[in-house]
Design brief:
- Chain A has 334 residues and is mostly helical.
- Chain A is built from 14 helices and 2 strands, in the order αααααββααααααααα.
- Chain A has a two-stranded antiparallel sheet with strand order 1-2.
- In chain A, a hairpin with a 2-residue loop joins strand 1 and strand 2.
- Chain A is globular.
- The model of chain A has no long low-confidence stretch (mean pLDDT 86).
- Chain B is of the alpha/beta class.
- With 262 residues, chain C is an alpha/beta fold.
- Chain C contains 9 helices and 12 strands.
- Chain C has a 6-stranded mixed beta sheet, sandwiched between helices.
- In chain C, strand 11 and strand 12 form a beta hairpin.
- The chains are: A mainly alpha (334), B alpha/beta (290), C alpha/beta (262).
- At the A-B interface, helix 3, helix 5 and helix 7 of A face helix 1, strand 8, helix 8 and helix 9 of B.
């Protein structure tokens, strides 16, 4: 695909994403729709409608977008670094660590001190960062990192975290952990603007680094030795990519729990459209991923209104079959 | 199509428990009065003590904390996963259990050991009152049960009379906040708050997980917020209060009518439902007098 | 001015406790085409990997155009040395053009933005290797010979001074073997590249290389011009094979006729 066509394609994806944003912000369990949204944006509308549309819906849609962008870009990076198209952002154990942090918080934290809207995400973030440290410590050997070692350590960490979480939930008072279980399935909430700004900042930093690294990701995807022969400092480049991808994944998981399939599917779909060049793939995936989660969250809020589904359930139910279709097509082609 | 998921889950759990229930109903009442009783559900423990069988209770779950004497009895595990071994070791001649997530296998295992297991549903208000009578009957003195139910009903009537002519307050009973899980129609908290003069804004059955947007559009004037475990005094730093206080668009929030309930209020199917109805009435209509 | 493009001084390398290469010393003059021959396990691939800094020697020193190899930064090294591996299997569906343009990486700045010159160099490399007509095709859909030429084009895009090829014709049919060597010769003439080819193909190497080195058990047994090296005794000691040597009148180079196992 010529560069100009790729740019046009990117612009198209961005436009569709904006449409998704508008659609997501226009639907909800209350009766407010597009017209009300426009009215509120242009300064009119009644205060209650304003509260619903801006503070409840829009803030949540934006959070969903940030999460989708993070997970998709992280998925691209992991797939390149691990040279494995089946890698997703959770494969190295970051999500397990975040989940464990959240569960430990719910198990131990004195509740009057830490507010659930920032305490639990902070604990989840701490869990994710601790996991990164462990990964870094365990898999470096004489200054070199084998990607196989990374993968295996991630699998083990995920399994371990899962087991500890199960322990807490079964040994503890079940009433305490009802919220946790929902969180583990992906719980989008209406964040305060401070929280949104924090997530936004973390996501922006991570995405900026990953986009700057995207040329190097192309080279890493060829293999460590070939990348080195093309001038890449493989060790450093691998860790920069892993760190940036883990940071945005941790930010996403800390606030909204585990939203599955996005980091796996969006890079695949974008690769089919744009090819494998990560300099286009990473931004395209971020934009498309944002759209996907915004729409998934809109569906989660409205399909069985007023009952809300966990977002992770919607992405899994849509993502699973979609992924199967992609796989089957790929098998047929080869 | 609404809430078909929750409906399916509800039906599924009933179907799973029905064989056990039917079995219990068909067994003839044993001749001897049970002398060693194990309770696998906190609500049933309360009922046992309330109908005078407390001194015969030899085993309870870790969460059976009322009345205080119950805490002195040997523990047999949690109410989600009680220990079959611990129960068998106590050589009970009666085990009472309410259907719950996870304790079915344990209960069946105990039955296979030849122990007498009575399944006593106690979720809704009707179940609870029926449970009081049937537990009393199992313990050999149905009269105590009927009397207790009678006094509970009398207290309910007193509350109803007091609030009869007052406007019903649109109320949300929130079990937890992140995510928001509310008590739907037909649940115990909903039934109690309706007796106490409130109107449940949630029409969905069971305990739906709902979004803020729904709460904002229902405009409840009172939010009853349950707390899992809590320090003795609710404080303004409580997480739940902080959560609700952001949303001034909810009438309950802007009128400062988000009330933190003492742990368990409205959620325990047992003799204290009358206490809870009176407590909630005092909250819903503070000026109604006693 | 012809200095040493590549110099090994008493280089040793072990895989764990197993020594692969010991006391390896040689020097390759700039602008020459050198063929490295030897049986399997002789250490030929290890030599290439040591020269490209994929492996670090446990003893000795390697110099590239006068500079210590270990002291060069990755990008600086990649601007001097390019490697054409035996095979390359990208996990993703890159196009030929995308693969070739990756060769510009050592020349790009921090963000990896390419300029018009980068595109021009890549295009010229593709044309030299006769793969320009395949540029939009997926790399994985190409035949072995085409892939090898694309990888060669990528190496050229690095604008290296030294080209290392590890058995470039290992999976190719006769036509493509001849074509690759012909192409290497042409590139060497046009660009003055120093070329080091590890090969199993004695006769093609003899025809196209200025010098040959025979390796066995991690050490050089003999090196020199094809006429000096390709004689029955050295070949017997390295390959355990009895041969007759013929002379190709068109090139003036010797060729080997195997007779039987020694």
């Amino acid at each position: 695909m010529r560069p100009s066509r790729k740019l046009a394609g990117l612009a198209a994806v961005a436009a569709l994403s904006l449409v998704a944003l508008a659609v997501a912000a226009s639907v909800g369990p209350s009766a407010l729709g597009v017209g009300d949204l426009l009215a509120v944006i242009t300064g009119g509308g009644d205060p209650n409608g304003r509260a619903i549309l801006i503070d409840v819906r829009l803030a949540r849609v934006l959070l969903a977008g940030l999460v989708g962008a993070s997970l998709s870009a992280a998925g691209c990076a992991y797939q390149a670094v691990l040279r494995n198209p089946l890698a997703d952002p959770y494969i190295l154990g970051i999500s397990g660590g975040a989940a464990l942090g959240a569960v430990a918080f719910d198990a131990f934290a004195p509740r009057a001190i830490l507010v659930a809207t920032t305490g639990r995400p902070a604990a989840a973030l701490a869990g994710a960062l601790a996991t990164l440290l462990i990964l870094f410590g365990l898999t470096r050997f004489r200054g070199r990192t084998e990607t196989t070692a990374l993968l295996l350590t991630g699998v083990v960490l995920n399994a371990f975290d899962s087991a500890v979480i199960q322990f807490f939930v079964s040994a503890g008072d079940p009433a305490r952990f009802q919220g946790t279980l929902s969180y583990l399935m992906g719980a989008m909430s209406s964040p305060s603007w401070a929280v949104l700004a924090t997530v936004g900042a973390l996501t922006a930093i991570g995405l900026a680094v990953l986009t700057a690294q995207s040329g190097t990701l192309n080279l890493l995807a060829l293999g460590d030795e070939e990348a080195a022969q093309l001038g890449v400092g493989v060790e450093r480049a691998t860790w920069v990519a892993v760190l940036a991808a883990s940071l945005v994944t941790a930010a996403a998981v800390a606030f909204t729990g585990i939203v599955g399939f996005v980091g796996l599917i969006v890079p695949h779909a974008m690769r089919r459209l744009f090819g494998a060049d990560h300099r286009v793939l990473v931004p395209a995936s971020a934009i498309a991923g944002a759209a996907m989660v915004m729409l998934a969250d809109a569906a989660a809020r409205t399909l069985f209104a007023p009952t809300e589904l966990p977002v992770g359930v919607v992405t899994a139910m849509v993502g699973g079959p979609f992924f199967l279709v992609l796989l089957i097509r790929r098998l047929r082609e080869s | 199509m609404r809430s078909s998921l929750t409906l399916i889950i509800a039906i599924a759990s009933l179907v799973v428990w029905m064989p056990a229930c039917r079995q219990a109903a068909q067994e003839p009442a044993p001749s001897a009065v049970p002398a060693r009783i194990v309770s696998l559900t906190p609500a049933l423990t309360e009922i046992l003590f309330a109908v005078g069988a407390g001194d015969r209770v030899v085993g309870v779950t870790e969460y059976c904390d009322f009345p205080p004497e119950a805490r002195t009895r040997p523990k047999v595990g949690g109410y989600v996963n009680p220990s079959v071994e611990a129960v068998v070791a106590l050589k009970p001649d009666l085990i009472v259990v309410s259907p719950g997530p996870g304790n079915r296998d344990a209960a069946l295992a105990m039955q296979r050991q030849g122990l007498r297991v009575e399944v006593v549903p106690a979720e809704s208000l009707e179940d609870t009152l029926a449970a009081i009578v049937s537990v009393a009957r199992m313990c050999g003195d149905e009269g105590k049960g009927t009397a207790l139910v009678g006094s509970i009903r009398a207290r309910f009537d007193a509350v109803s009379r007091r609030v009869a002519r007052l406007p019903r307050v649109p109320t949300l009973f929130s079990v937890q906040t992140t995510p928001i899980i509310a008590a739907g129609s037909g649940t115990l908290p909903a039934q109690i708050l309706e007796i106490a003069g409130g109107r449940n804004v949630v029409t969905e059955p069971r305990y739906p997980r709902i979004g803020l947007e729904s709460v904002l559009s229902w405009k409840p004037e009172l939010i009853l917020q349950s707390r899992m475990d809590a320090p003795a005094q609710p404080s303004s730093e409580d997480a739940e209060l902080a959560f609700w206080s952001r949303w001034k668009g909810i009438p309950a929030v802007s009128a400062n009518r988000v009330v933190l309930l003492d742990p368990g209020v409205g959620l325990r199917p047992g003799p204290r439902v009358a206490d809870d109805a009176e407590a909630l009435a005092a909250i819903i209509h503070p000026l109604a007098g006693r | 001015m012809s200095g040493a493009a590549l110099a090994f001084e008493n280089v040793g390398f072990s895989y764990g406790k197993l020594p692969i290469v010991t006391g390896l010393s040689f020097s390759i003059a700039e602008g020459s085409v050198v063929g490295v021959l030897g049986p399997n396990g002789a250490g030929k691939t290890t030599l290439v990997r040591l020269a490209s800094a994929a492996l670090t020697p446990s003893r000795g020193r390697i110099a590239v155009f006068g500079d210590d190899l270990g002291s060069l930064a990755s990008k600086a090294r990649a601007r001097r040395i390019a490697v054409v591996p035996q095979e390359t299997h990208p996990v993703f569906e890159f196009t030929v053009e995308e693969i070739v343009r990756m060769g510009r990486a050592p020349h790009l700045g921090f963000l990896g933005i390419e300029g018009p010159r980068d595109a021009a160099v890549a295009l010229e490399a593709m044309e030299s290797c006769e793969v320009a007509h395949l540029r939009t095709r997926p790399f994985r859909a190409l035949s072995g010979g085409e892939r090898q030429r694309v990888t060669l084009a990528r190496a050229l895009t690095q604008e290296p001074r030294l080209l290392l090829l590890d058995e470039p014709t290992a999976f190719l049919d006769l036509k493509h073997r001849v074509a690759v060597y012909g192409l290497l010769g042409k590139l060497h003439r046009e660009r003055g590249l120093t070329v080091v080819i590890v090969s199993h193909d004695i006769n093609l190497a003899a025809r196209h290389c200025d010098r040959l080195a025979l390796l066995r058990d991690g050490a050089i047994v003999i090196d020199g011009t094809p006429a000096e090296v390709l004689r029955p005794e050295p070949i017997r000691s390295v390959y355990d094979v009895e041969v007759d040597i013929g002379l190709d009148p068109s090139s003036g180079r010797p060729f080997v006729i195997p007779r039987g196992v020694a």
